[in-house]
UniProtKB/TrEMBL annotation:
<feature type="transmembrane region" description="Helical">
    <location>
        <begin position="398"/>
        <end position="422"/>
    </location>
</feature>
<keyword id="KW-1133">Transmembrane helix</keyword>
<feature type="transmembrane region" description="Helical">
    <location>
        <begin position="245"/>
        <end position="265"/>
    </location>
</feature>
<feature type="transmembrane region" description="Helical">
    <location>
        <begin position="335"/>
        <end position="357"/>
    </location>
</feature>
<dbReference type="InterPro" id="IPR050327">
    <property type="entry name" value="Proton-linked_MCT"/>
</dbReference>
<feature type="transmembrane region" description="Helical">
    <location>
        <begin position="73"/>
        <end position="97"/>
    </location>
</feature>
<feature type="transmembrane region" description="Helical">
    <location>
        <begin position="130"/>
        <end position="153"/>
    </location>
</feature>
<dbReference type="GO" id="GO:0022857">
    <property type="term" value="F:transmembrane transporter activity"/>
</dbReference>
<dbReference type="InterPro" id="IPR036259">
    <property type="entry name" value="MFS_trans_sf"/>
</dbReference>
<dbReference type="InterPro" id="IPR011701">
    <property type="entry name" value="MFS"/>
</dbReference>
<feature type="transmembrane region" description="Helical">
    <location>
        <begin position="194"/>
        <end position="212"/>
    </location>
</feature>
<feature type="transmembrane region" description="Helical">
    <location>
        <begin position="104"/>
        <end position="124"/>
    </location>
</feature>
<feature type="transmembrane region" description="Helical">
    <location>
        <begin position="160"/>
        <end position="182"/>
    </location>
</feature>
<keyword id="KW-0812">Transmembrane</keyword>
<protein>
    <submittedName>
        <fullName>Putative monocarboxylate transporter 10-like protein</fullName>
    </submittedName>
</protein>
<keyword id="KW-0472">Membrane</keyword>
<feature type="transmembrane region" description="Helical">
    <location>
        <begin position="32"/>
        <end position="61"/>
    </location>
</feature>
Amino acid sequence: AMTSLAAPDKEPQPVVDDGISGVSKVRKDGGLAWLVCLASFWVHGAVFGIINCFGVLYPVIHDLAPDKEQASFHASLVGSLCVGSTFALSPVASLLADKFGARITVICGGLVGSIGLLLSSWAYKVPYLWITYGGLLGVGSTMAYAPSLAVLAHYFNRRLGLANGIATAGSSVFTALLPIPLAAMMDAIGLQNTFRVMAILTLSVALCGIAFKTPLVMHSWNDEEKEPSGCCEVLNKSIWKNRRFVVWVIAIPLALFGYFVPYVHLVQHVEDVFPDANGETLVTCMGITSGLGRILFGRLADLPSVSPVVLQQVSFMAMGLLTLSIAAAHTYVSLVLVCLLLGLCDGCFISLIGPAAQRLTGTRGASQAIGFLLGLCSVPLTAGPPAAGILYDQRGNYNLAFLLAGVPPIVASILMCSIHLIKTGPIEEQDVRPRQSDILGARRHSALVASEP
């Protein structure tokens, strides 16, 4: 939430290369900004709608595993590798976006992800899916996701929280809508053809990337400094000197060890505990309330008196308690209620990644702050579902898996208390200037106003 910034109507705005006519002006919180927000909404939806709905594909992939004793582990590893590579490569995606622009990075991501799904349609063994679905789709997803989230900070000031809420709600909308048609397609046309339909959906991400006209003002350089040309020079090392950011970037990955366990294993859990119930409905429930939570808490984070970090902290505590309660839910109705509340907490956490990063590091550091955060999240997100699968193979149920998955978010919420005890100075946005080729636009460029954390 950047409510302490001056109103965009009164401040000259950064110059943007529109990729067609050369140089144009962008008014923050204006019409073009909302077009970018809409494109980001679709990117989030296509990327995470597919990732979150892996539980629908899981039973069929489970049956493809040759080793039935480790079938749960091998099948869940397909989805976990996709999630892990999506987050592990986020720092690289952020550097690519800073170097080449969000437009090129997102377009390439959509193409790579689509190719990965297309190749998955010809993979008849689970190990092949580790490469095509887990690897290629994950690479494409990270190239699309990280820049589409970070680019919003360059188009919004007063409505940044709301914009993040709307954009990240895309994954909730798609998560709510995709499970039922995916399940129907699996029954009607099989897994291979379903992969091909998903490839078309992922290809639409590349079209959305055209809307991302990243501002030239991504970093600040003094007049004596040269514009960075290599990846090492683009790397923003100053964010790691921010102690509050360091605590935040440690706490969030810790909280996510059990994050994807419900998304991957909940459908199978329902089939075991409530054979006559529909497990896909629970994923839809989480998607609906997650979308509502993203818009609600995103708008709430725009209030000057509200800290996005505190909201994330509360959501982790609630998320941990709710995950613990999945194992204790003895009726389908109670499980539906738990999933509705779990989705609300998920929406709060996800929608505030961008505002929290900007609050802690400033607009200039937000892109790489988000990228490195997502990169560190890759290990817990990858390890969680396979670990739950191993426990299921050994014990025959998911009770212990859900109990263990609920502990890390609670511990992380307690750890985040230390963020509020660390005192730092205000985040300053230094004078920035466009590239030398845009001298004309540079006259209309001015320093961005400082933001208090």
